[in-house]
Amino acid sequence: MKAGKAPARAVLLFALMLPAVPAAADPMQLVGYSGYLGEWELTATVTEDGSATPKGYSGPLSIKHVGLCTQDGPEEKSGRIRIQMMPSESRIEATLWVDGIECRYRGVLSGFYTGTMDCSGRERVPLKLWIKESK
């Protein structure tokens, strides 16, 4: 055996005996537009929440009115979002909480996720959502 190979094997064997530690999941950035004219801009940063099937993510959410009808500057709201991704089916489901209102969203992937957001006591509105991993 050549010199140096025995210590390398010992290190490899020791490493294989250590318990597997899951790597910290990178956060994902969500960007979207809601409303019939895309007048609300949505941004969020989500991380894995531990659910396995379907994989779930959650985090803080911010929405800003970017339409032409703003008089005193853009209206901004914050809340939370939880998404579940079904990559094998190319779809996503989400629950959003903003100003005490819970909204549900279902979207299908075609370059971006497109679907409608349904808030209790209000009419459904379109929502387009893009997801990208942070680096």
Strand content: over 45%
Assembly context of the chains = single chain
| Straight-line distance between termini | 43 Å
Low-confidence stretches: 4-24
Using the alpha-carbon principal axes, give the shape. globular
The CATH class label is Mainly Beta
Structural class: mainly beta
How is this fold's topology laid out?
Elements: H1 5-17, E1 28-34, E2 40-48, E3 55-65, E4 76-86, E5 91-98, E6 101-109, E7 113-119, E8 125-133
Antiparallel strand pairs: 1-2, 1-8, 2-3, 3-4, 4-5, 5-6, 6-7, 7-8
Overview in brief:
By secondary structure, the chain is mainly beta. The protein has one helix at 5-17; strands at 28-34, 40-48, 55-65, 76-86, 91-98, 101-109, 113-119, 125-133. It has a single domain (23-133), classed as Beta Barrel (Lipocalin).
Structure in words:
The chain is built from one helix and eight strands. With 135 residues, the chain is mostly beta strands. The protein has one domain (23-133): Lipocalin (Beta Barrel), CATH 2.40.128. It has an eight-stranded antiparallel β-barrel. A hairpin with a 6-residue loop joins strand 2 (40-48) and strand 3. It is globular, with a radius of gyration of 21 Å.
Overview features:
53% strand, 135 residues, mainly beta, 1 helix, single chain, Lipocalin, globular
